[in-house]
Amino acid sequence: MEANNSPVAKPVKGGAPVKSSVTGVKNAFLVICCCFVVAVLAFLFFFGAPSHFEFEGEAPASMWFFEGDAHPTDLIGTIFKGGVIVPILQTLFLTVIVLSVERAIALKSAKGTGNIAKFVAAVKEKLAKNDIAGAQELCRKQKGSVAAVVSAALVRYEEMDKNTILTKEQKVQTLQKEVEEATAMEMPSLQQNLPIVATLTTLGTLVGLLGTVIGMIKSFQALSASGAPDSTALSTGISEALVNTAFGIATGAFAVISYNFYTNKIDNLTYAIDEIGFSIVQTFQATH
After folding, report:
1. Tell me, what's the pLDDT at 216?
2. Could you read off the pLDDT of 18-36 as tens digits, one per residue?
3. Counting beta carbons within 10 angstroms of the beta carbon of residue 263, is it exposed (0 to 12), middle (13 to 18) or buried (19 or more)?
4. Separation of alpha carbons 72 and 81, rounded Å
5. Which of 166, 259, 152, 194 is nearest to 25 (CA)?
6. Crossing angle, helix 168-191 and helix 144-162, to 10 degrees?
7. Angstrom distances, CA of residue 45 to CA of 48, 79, 84, 140, 163
8. How far, in Å, CA of 250 to CA of 93, rounded?
9. Which residues contact 223 (CB under 8 A, 6 or more apart)?
10. pLDDT at 7 over 60
11. Which end of the chain is more exposed for a tag (fewer CB within 10 A), N or C?
12. Which of 250, 6, 283 is nearest to 123 (CA)?
């Protein structure tokens, strides 16, 4: 029959390869929008609550459109005095936190259910015994990205083992290509949303710097006023500058730490994939 003349036969023992089920947020724009809504509401109702200020006259019902003299009584009120740039910085900061938690959950699912090093060692042991079915069973128990790549390679390994048309070199090349393709399929889900976190490392600092400059401009305007400087306007400008500086630095620092931490996690997973993929190819070369 024609099916027997095809270069690749259907696998028998291993069955279907394990599918990776890396969880994660697909649309980061929705995350940013939600964080913006939360930041604005917190700025208006929490940081802008009249209880955080003292007034010369009667306290207003809300600080939203209050234009009189109000002095912050705590740090929360001082943050409100930071101005309209504060909700933007809070949005960026919340986005970094949410995406960092999202990446933690995603990479945990990508890692699988067990220890990666033990899984790699166990698969190598099964390969040394030419127990492909046993290695596939380990992949089904482990789950995650590493197991998905290994499982796909094992399915191709079994196909090449039964193939009688291709040369040994062609079989090895096909097996190597399968490992590379399976790895390439997993990388986008591992790195998803990390470019946004990387962007926020710079964006947070720049927006904070913008708020600082605006605050300093207001401070110098108060100093340049004729007669005695307006102490309220001066303190408001300084508060705005310092609050924005603090939020900008915090956002940039947290984003850098988060990006480097999860990049290192992905590198470790990639190293494990490369190691086990190389072992599969080397085992095939040694036994065929």
Report:
1. 85
2. 776 677 788 889 999 999 9
3. middle
4. 8
5. 194
6. 160
7. 5, 13, 14, 50, 69
8. 8
9. 229, 234
10. no
11. N
12. 283
- Closest listed residue to residue 196, CA positions, set 41, 24, 66: 24
Place of tokens 């490392």: 201
What average pLDDT does the segment 219-239 reach? Answer: 69
Q: Which helix (H) or strand (E) holds 165?
A: none
Q: CA 231 to CA 14: how far, in whole Å?
A: 78
Mean pLDDT over 154-179 rounds to: 87
Reported as a single tens digit per residue, the pLDDT across 180-201 is 998 888 888 899 999 999 999 9
The structure tokens listed for 260 are 């480097």
Q: pLDDT for 40-66, tens place per residue?
A: 999 988 998 888 888 777 777 666 666
Handedness of CA 150, 155, 159, 161 (dihedral sign): positive
